[in-house]
Amino acid sequence: MAELSLPILPEFLFRYRPLTGPDDEVYGPGTVFDREVKAIMEPYLWCADFKNLNDPMEGLFDPTRRLKKHSRWQTVVDEIIAGKSGIGVASFSDTKHNELMWTHYAGRSSGICVEYRPLKLVASLPRETRLVRVAYDDKPAFVSVADMDNIPSAIQKVLSQKKFNWAYEREWRLLSLVGATKVNEKTAIKRIYLGTRITDEHRSKLREAVAGSHIEIYEMRVNGYRYTHHKIKTLTSPK
After folding, report:
1. Nearest to 143 by CA among 65, 83, 58
2. In the chain, pLDDT over 70 holds for what percent of residues?
3. C-alpha distances out from residue 229 to 189, 192, 198, 217, 222, Å
């Protein structure tokens, strides 16, 4: 029997983030921006409850026919459903040049894209977290008899698959508890890319925020039908 190899981590992973949003109206202007800067500088990753993600089919699965014939099949299904509760997701992509991602997840290009070093990121996260590559299919994830004795693995499989329509995201996921997951290595973040529609105020504040740190800042620019990125000068120390 051939050995099943794990997915190979890309050199970098990217997290698209908005700098404005509904919370600014609820908690005051600048709330979203300040939260994103805090996540970069502390740093941490916010893992949202999978039930609150934008895909209504998130977390669906189907028991196989063979499992349904087993006396414990309903117990297995119930354990997976219960086990999914409380699991949070932080999403990454393996590309920074995705126009749809900039539109959908970075405030229509007015936000940012944060570049992570996956090896350093994984080494700095709690042991109970999992970084997984998302698979895409035209059917929900299957749960079989082979999954009965490893419910955590079955849950990971269920939360690592989405409908094929989402394949353009080229997604990797951090699976952790809902809430903030501490990143215990600041150099896991290498660069911040500024969207083409970022405001002058946000550009200036980001430069101030990373002043004196190792983080580099690049600007995304539109060149015909493609993106290019250009490094901008960072401040040597906070103002």
Report:
1. 65
2. 98
3. 17, 11, 14, 10, 9
State the Cα–Cα distance between residues 149 and 152, nearest whole angstrom. Answer: 9
Quick one: pLDDT at residue 238? 53
Distance CA 80, CA 63 (A): 11
Mean pLDDT computed over every residue of the chain: 93
Burial class (CB in 10 A: 0-12, 13-18, 19+), 196: middle
Instruction: Write out the DSSP string of 33-98.
Output: HHHHHHHHHTTEEEEEEGGGSS-TTTT-EEE-HHHHTSTTHHHHHHHHHHHHTTEEEEEEES-S--
Q: Which residues contact 178 (CB under 8 A, 6 or more apart)?
A: 47, 48, 49, 86, 87, 88
Residue 19 tokens read as: 């700098």
Q: pTM for the whole thing?
A: 0.92
> What is the C-alpha separation between 109 and 104, in angstroms, rounded?
9
Amino acid letter, residue 152: P
Report how far residue 190's alpha carbon sits from residue 152's, in angstroms, rounded to the nearest whole number: 32
Q: How far is it, in rounded angstroms, from Cα 239 to Cα 209?
A: 9
Rounded to 5°, the CA angle 92-130-140 comes to 75
Interatomic CA distance for residues 133 and 7, integer angstroms: 7
